[in-house]
Amino acid sequence: MIDMLKDQIAIVTGGASGMGAATAKLYAKEGAKVVIADFNPTMAQEVVDEITAAGGVARFYQPMDVSKQADVDAIVAKTIEEFGRIDILAAFAGKTFDGDPNLTWQQCLEKTTAVNQWGMLYTCFAVVPHMKEQKSGKIIICSSNGAFNPTAPAYEYHMAKGACESLTVNLAMDLAKFGIRVNCIKPGPIVTPFWEELMGKGSEDAQAQVFKGIAEIEVPLGRVGKPEDIAGPALWFASDLSAYVTGLCLYVGGGMGYVYAFGQSSIAHAGTGRHDV
Does residue 78 form part of some domain? Predict the structure, then answer.
């Protein structure tokens, strides 16, 4: 593959780490000019530098908190100012606050919903007017296999991710007449900083056991995923290979979701969630 996204302009939220970073790098490799939208300036700049060193084009304008509409609008405005258009939005920004012992349940609920639900809405609605004007665009929304097939309880996070799938199909229906395609990736267990956020800092040994249990019991392919396993489908959704696909919520979890709708959970009672029942 080469130049599948030649000269297209892509915004990748959550692009400083994990699935977002892997997607940003692959988009750039395929010829896109990539804007990294993230709250962590140090990590975001590292991704920009890596892309630039490889001969690609990438930008990081300023830190962006996806839960703040003004932050989102500012990044979109700067992208339009420099490049004049937005062809792709890959919305990977997401976070759980379940592992933060300093938050009350109400605070956890509000912060998790603000980032994962309202932040997704703000981001999509910020790019839609520009895509409507150019009568084209691709929006890739990141949900989670756990929204409807949870491996561990993460109530606030999974509820918000379920809302992202509703947003996907509603946007897809509404925007098809403008030549805008909207699809959703539902990642299975992917090794990213999410798990430390869910289980708390210093949980490396526990994470290793969780990954081993998930791989052996719940993933037909027998392994947990890497961020690059998500970047490939994100490229497919952004490219003309999926030109006749919109409104699809695609499981990407080594067979989880398709083969195992709900297996015997390896960690359902491991106490990783804030509200064990």
Answer: yes
In a domain, 259, yes or no: no
Residue-by-residue DSSP string for the chain: ---TTTT-EEEEETTTSHHHHHHHHHHHHTT-EEEEE-S-HHHHHHHHHHHHHTT-EEE--S---TT-HHHHHHHHHHHHHHHS---EEEE------TT-TTS-HHHHHHHHHIIIIIHHHHHHHHHHHHHHHHT-EEEEEE--GGGTS-SS--HHHHHHHHHHHHHHHHHHHHHGGGTEEEEEEEE-SB-STHHHHHH-TT-HHHHHHHHHHHHHHT-TTSS-B-HHHHHHHHHHHHSGGGTT--S-EEEESTTBTTTBSS---SSTTSS-SSS--
* Mean pLDDT within 145-168: 91
pLDDT digits (tens, 9 = 90+) for 75-114: 999 999 999 999 999 999 998 887 788 999 999 999 999 9
Q: Which one of 27, 61, 122, 157 is the catalytic residue?
A: 157
Active site includes 157?
A: yes
Question: Is 192 among the domain residues?
Answer: yes
